[in-house]
Amino acid sequence: MDILNLLMGGFAITFEPLNLGLVIFGCTVGLFIGAMPGLGSVNGVAILLPMTFLVPPTSAVIFLAAIYYGAMYGGAISSIMLGIPGASTAVATTFDGRPMALKGQADKALIAAAVASFVGGSISVVLFTGFAPLLAEVALKFGPPEQFALMLMAFATFIGLGGDDIPKTFFSIMIGLALSAVGLDIISGEPRLIFFDLPGFFHGINFLVLAIGIYGIGEMLWTVEVSKGNVEMSKATVTIARTLAALKDIAKTWKTMLMGSVLGYFVGILPAAGATPGALMAYGIAKSTAKDPDSFGKGNVAGVVAPESANNAASTGSMLPMLTLGIPGSPTTAILLGGMVIWGLEPGPLLFVQHEEFVWGLIASLYAANFFALIINIAFIPAFIMVLKMPFTILAPIIFCLCVVGGYVPTQDMHDVWLMLIFGIVGYLMRKLDYPLAPAVLAIVLGPIAEPTMRQSLIGSHGDITIFFTRPISGAIMVVAILLLLMPLIKIYKNRNKANGGPEKTV
């Protein structure tokens, strides 16, 4: 009953005129941002974060969460219509969504994506409501050693569970950690890593500058190079009769939606895992358990339903560790985490006690955002198709201008604008050389949290590193983190063993 009372109080906050308007506006903007190739939820939240300084913190996070939700819906639009994922989370949607569009079933694919997103979002929000207070109570027992162990596990998750090149992932994390150390030492106050003695580095490197540079400028440059203006467009016909027929077929995939929703939610909870692996895993399971696996990749509607339900469920799940433990579950929630810190809200277990109205207002807003995103998505399908016909030569300058404004507003320092442009070029080169970008963004956000907790723990134990292993919770987390770090070595050993024929079995 306590949860229901708190949730009802959250709905009262959500349905305040300002907050409800921000939910609807955020969902609409997020849908268009997610539909634009090269943008996605990370870019949208990063670019529009400075605009939220005009409203109270609760309204600001509700607005950004609505953008996040809307962008997760909209990511399927360009994946289906253009064959270009609006974000990495929608990569799996292209596998069957694009073939459906080429067969004249783009409207069915778009409706399937919208409905699956709604189901995934609804299930995950219910799970979020039930699990958040429980995890918050457990998190109250966390001290500096446990927090540092969690930070280490977040990085280890990228390495152990990620599909990227391990050395390149290490490099990306290390670059992010190095950049997070720029500024003044947290204990001695001495300046460190002040490149070329430029005074702009004394206030450190704003994570927003890095995020906008890498995801805004860098992705734009990458899209310009890859597309070269030769993007094939498909046409979709939207009628009431076709919509009803599509809904009837989509209803038959309810088991796939349920599987994707539950899987996506729990993958989203994993620190730094995010929605992309959840969507790919859901697609793989749907294909492997289907009666007609050969139809996948050729226009099977279940191939759209599985990843879309999973990535929306994961987007909600990734907010759970962000709020309760202060660990973002995805690059987008890493930016949300940084925004909360800017507004004076410290994510963690005490957030549920000290800022109860904020937390439950945000949770209730997810229910509203999920509903409005579905309605807006289906109603605006013809409009999305028109917007995607906009030449990239017009879209690119708009993105660039938004990036410059977004990089300047937080500190109002031209130093950060130039730094953002440099990060944009670096992000483009990293993408071109196939270096993962998300670990660098996550590291620059988690670095300022990991460093003080590590130093506090070592000061309290007089330099004894075993403090991270002798405490029950931190010890268990450290063991998991070490196992995740060792997973790539285990895979290499197994692959090498197979290549050599492996040990001969004797009967």
How does this structure look, described?
This protein is an all-alpha fold and 507 residues long. The chain has one domain (2-489). Helices cover 73% and strands 1% of the residues. It has helices at 2-14, 17-35, 41-48, 57-81, 91-102, 106-139, 144-161, 166-180, 207-227, 240-251, 254-269, 275-289, 302-317, 319-325, 331-342, 351-354, 356-379, 381-387, 392-408, 414-432, 438-460, 467-470, 472-499, and strands at residues 183-184, 191-192. Strands 1-2 form a two-stranded antiparallel ribbon. Strand 1 and strand 2 form a beta hairpin. Helix 2 (17-35) packs across helix 17, helix 4 (57-81) packs antiparallel against helix 13 and helix 8 (166-180) packs across helix 21. The mean pLDDT is 78.
Summarize the structure.
73% of the residues lie in helices and 1% in strands. It has helices at residues 2-14, 17-35, 41-48, 57-81, 91-102, 106-139, 144-161, 166-180, 207-227, 240-251, 254-269, 275-289, 302-317, 319-325, 331-342, 351-354, 356-379, 381-387, 392-408, 414-432, 438-460, 467-470, 472-499; strands at 183-184, 191-192.
